[in-house]
Amino acid sequence: MGLPVLTESSARAQTLQCLDRLPKLSPSMTQLLVQLSQRNCEVLDLAKILERDPVLSGQVLRLSNSAIFGRLRPVASVRHAVAMVGITAIRKFALASSIANLFSRTKMAAHFSIRRFNVHSVATATLVELLSEEVAFEHAGDAFLAGLLHDIGKLLIAVALPRQYDEILALLSVTGGTLIEAERNVIGIDHAELSGLAVSRWELSEAIQWAACYHHQPSGAPAVESTRARKASLSLGVHCADAYVNHLGMSVLADAVAAETTPTLEIPGFTFSQERVLERFQKELPRLCDLFR
């Protein structure tokens, strides 16, 4: 008797089962994500949030005492670390690390880099957040988390389906097609839809769910996002930021080919200075990369 033929529908069904291996978010973890996603944290408030998580506290202290910050004296407390490294940097490091920590005990696909994942996710989140200061996005308060979690489906594939993850990369290198096409061919679903489903399982806001699901095809998002007049789609914001960060070579995939033309940050219906946004973004990039060395 021969091997069963794996159809697209059966491949999709098997892939969806990997959602059962998605780590659960505890109430404290959900609270941490929501609180850290807001930009108006004070030093003491941020320190109190971090001190509730012993693992994250240890990571913050190791970061603050690392060579990249050139401390002359050891940093012994989380509050000191936040004050010395800075709220902006610590907040972004803590958000990315808290997500990565959920998967820390699970073996990942050999060709998946959690560092590249963190750098790409935080860079995308940072750019979406900067855009949200120029553009009136629907659910703008979710901008950072939407950018941070848009590719969580890639991480889930690497953790739950490591063999298929390597098959996707192999197919991608042979065909020269898109990652989305390769994923659909191998596992019957793409990472964007899987990201949306993961965010839904975590019971985070629908705005974050839709932004993750539609960040490669934002034209399909308005049907579910119910974006009001004079408000921009958060999915489109994540799409633009993701494309620009990939263009810089900060992709989750080590061998990703950057687009020949520079992606635009244009949001239809809104006039703002892309140069101003990118100038601020470029100033933050070196520190972002240093956070995840």
Give a nutshell description of this structure.
With 293 residues, this protein is mostly helical. The protein has 16 helices and no strands.
Any overview of this molecule?
The protein has 293 residues and is mainly alpha-helical. It folds into two domains: 25-102, no CATH class; 111-293, Orthogonal Bundle (Hypothetical protein af1432), CATH 1.10.3210. Helix content is 60%, strand content 0%. It is built from 16 helices and no strands. The longest helix is centred in the middle third of the chain and has 19 residues, at 114-132. It starts with 7 loop residues before the first helix and ends with a helix. 43% of the residues are buried. The model has no long low-confidence stretch (mean pLDDT 89).
List the helices and strands and how they pair.
Blueprint: H1 8-16, H2 27-36, H3 43-51, H4 54-64, H5 78-85, H6 87-102, H7 114-132, H8 143-149, H9 152-160, H10 162-175, H11 179-187, H12 191-201, H13 206-213, H14 222-225, H15 234-247, H16 274-291
